[in-house]
Hints:
The protein is an alpha/beta fold. It is built from 12 helices and 10 strands. Strands 3-2-1-4-5-6-7-8 form an 8-stranded mixed sheet, with helices on both faces. The chain has a two-stranded antiparallel sheet with strand order 9-10. The site of acetoacetyl-coenzyme A has 18 residues, from α2, α8 and α10.
Amino acid sequence: MTSSLTNVTVIGAGTMGNGIAHVFAMKNYTVVLCDISEAALERAIATIGKNLDRMVAKEKISDEDKIAALANITTNTDLASAVSEADLVVEAATENVDLKLNIFRKMDEHAPDDAILATNTSSISITKIAAVTKRPAQVIGMHFMNPVPVMKLVEVIRGYSTSDVTLDMVMEASKDLGKIPTEVNDYPGFVANRILMPMINEAIISLHEGVAGVEEIDTVMQLGMAHPMGPLQLADFIGLDVCLSIMNVLYDGFGNSKYAPSPLLVNMVSAGKLGRKSGEGFYKYEKGSKDIVVSDSFK
Ligand code: CAA
């Protein structure tokens, strides 16, 4: 570890939170993983263990590295004590504005005065989040990509008041994780989702209009553009509810009809077809199996 931010607290033990804890712990940071649910924390530690095992099996790390990484993580269900010694807090809670604003108010109250408060939000305004704290210069976006241990990018988002010092420290910590941090400004969807989500939305509109089927659309983008997953499979991977909420942020933020979410996307979310996490989206997923088949609705 070369960063001066040695104590890192991660708020939220879901997919992104456990991935973020995983990568900091592997680089010997002292990590506190915080969630209101004890069960979520237990699941997160089990997932991190499984993902570290995968890296051991691929001979990317040794067994000792795995043990050391797990030993660097403690869990806590109380936010106030979880952030009390943090140099850097990375919030990765559910993507809900009011929830995030409340978490930032509490973090601001209980974290040391010099701590940096980062958010892994995929599209909520950093400037708006920073404004509920007394330290807007120390608030910044640290947008990791899923799966965090694999994806190289950290989109580092500068809010209206983010200071150069905060930016430099977060860029340095991200590089220390072996990631490529990329600085962007705080506008709806930042860069990643401003470009990715309209592509996914257009794929859903194409499916809805009958231009092509699920597998055909994904094959075109996978083989034609060398994307690791087609846009519909990626939508399932991200979660259709997350895709819809990001489209709505773009639509509201720019007031431009080109960002209107596909009615099919809206319907699927209303029907609870959220993709991989609900077992069905554009494809059907069986627990424990890597095989996927097109959902009956699109056959
Ligand atoms: N932890 C550690 N390693 C993991 C892992 C995890 N959670 N998941 C996968 N891996 C590793 C595997 O061990 C494997 O390693 P090797 O290359 O050494 O063999 C490698 O990643 C590839 O995994 P798999 O062989 O299991 O599967 P795959 O080849 O189908 O790749 C994938 C899976 C990496 C997810 C790939 O399909 C991919 O890159 N998909 C696109 C992901 C993407 O676009 N993510 C961004 C989503 S957008 C976002 O996150 C932000 C937002 O705001 C919405």
